[in-house]
Amino acid sequence: MQTPTTEAGATPAGQNQLHRVLKARHLTMIALGGAIGTGLFVASGAAIAQAGPGGALLVYLAIGLMVYFIMTSLGELATFMPVSGSFCTYASRYVDKGFGFALGWNFWISWATVVAVDVVAAQLVMAYWFPDTPGWIWSLAFLALTFGLNAFSARGFGEAEYWFAIIKVVAVLCFIGVGLAMLAGIIHGGVPVGLENWAVGDAPFVGNAATWVGVAMVVAYSFQGTELVAVAAGESENPRRNVPRAINHVFWRILLFYVLAILIIGLLLPYTDPQLLRNEVEDIAVSPFTLVFQHAGLLSAATVMNAVILTSVLSAGNSGMYAATRMLFNMAAEGQAPALFRRLTHGGVPLYALLATSLLACLCLFSLVYSPKAVYIWLLNFAGMTEFIVWLSIAVSHYRFRRGYVKHGYDTADLPYKAGLFPFGPLLAFVLCLLVTLGQNYQAFLEERIDWIGVVSTYLAIPLFLALWLGHRLVRKSHWIRYEDMRFHDLALDRQAGTQAVSPVAADARA
């Protein structure tokens, strides 16, 4: 491989090694903080308003089960091959190089769009305190802050995310504590609330299957970010130990937070409450968390929760910038993106990939032309669909990896982390992902006047992914990889030699 010349602030490609500086606590909080954000603090209100308290709880449980299987599949892959920007690597090796190419670009676009979503959300939140300040100023300011947090080192990102996540976790725990006290009658009149709000109107289950499929996208956005632990695996000090620990511990904590929070909101607030979000974001600063605190008589709750929501927005944008940057770096390292993006600064940061991600995140500036709320919804729908494509691909990659691994005669007991309930887990996750993906906005086509902007923002990610995949197959002549042609590193040989197993990527490079 030809070594490119060193440019200012960058190291040659031959020295391009991400620094393993993220500790177990960083990985735990990256996964936890990436998934607790505006999806829980704000979008949970929309889920309850549309599906009712029982319907929302059921959808959260179903999507939570799906994400659990996605995470265990990802844990098996990420511990076997801990590389930054791992999704496209797994797909390229065990599905199709063109599939991995399309997935890598899809993931980069997805998380760069998440950054744009979050900086638009930031201007909506800041309007609560500064209603007369042009929103785009806040978007640019927070985009610059997010860039700065990622520009120095992975440790800087990890530390920022660690403290952002702690703030969010404390807020959720406080909410659960206050909510349980209200349910018990300790706060707010001294009378237990009971199940009266589950008997309002059509509660507890509102709407039909189509309604719940639509709510599933909102719920899935709430869980978006749990997979970031695999992206960070490439910079973890000990990925084979820390990644499984983060996946096992974090998922159950997230599910506990979400299920308890949704149950409490559904018990304390009627789904007909006009302040709960409905079909579109009327006011991102009105959170069901804020409403519950206000009902408890905590009048300063709105200000406090808006500050927490702002922290969540910054945290999600910080994680999105990190994830997109590492994916672009990894694609460049594998020859699927321009070589420029694989160059690192002396601090181990892929600066050019970071700049490219920040440039795409400038989609937030559409708020100069259109309503910030409309831009927020468009970008949110697009990011949600790209996330489902990522989850689909993880399920497919894991299924084929395990089948190929066994077919080559390897013992699954040698895997550093083994996903349970195979093949049921990845197959169920695949079916649920496909159902929500295709059924997300089909009702738009049944209207007399089709909302083409809504349709495009919802489904654009699918033809874009297919175009990238098929385009790669046509140009590079890639093909579906047979199980017989898959490459695996023999972990047993490493154990016999008394050395720690290396990733298959490193093994193939040495061969």
Give the helices and strands, then pairings.
Blueprint: H1 24-35, H2 38-41, H3 43-80, H4 86-94, H5 97-126, H6 135-151, H7 154-183, H8 209-223, H9 228-231, H10 239-268, H11 288-295, H12 301-333, H13 351-361, H14 372-407, H15 424-439, H16 452-459, H17 461-476, H18 491-497, H19 504-510
Helix pairs in contact: 1-7, 1-10, 1-12, 3-8, 3-10, 3-14, 3-15, 4-5, 4-14, 5-6, 5-12, 5-13, 5-14, 5-17, 6-12, 6-13, 7-10, 7-12, 8-14, 8-15, 11-12, 12-13, 14-15, 14-16
In short:
With about 500 residues, the chain is mostly helical. The protein has helices at about 25-35, 40, 45-80, 85-95, 95-125, 135-150, 155-185, 210-225, 230, 240-270, 290-295, 300-335, 350-360, 370-405, 425-440, 450-460, 460-475, 490-495, 505-510. The chain has a single domain (about 20-445, about 455-480), classed as Up-down Bundle (Amino acid/polyamine transporter I), CATH 1.20.1740.
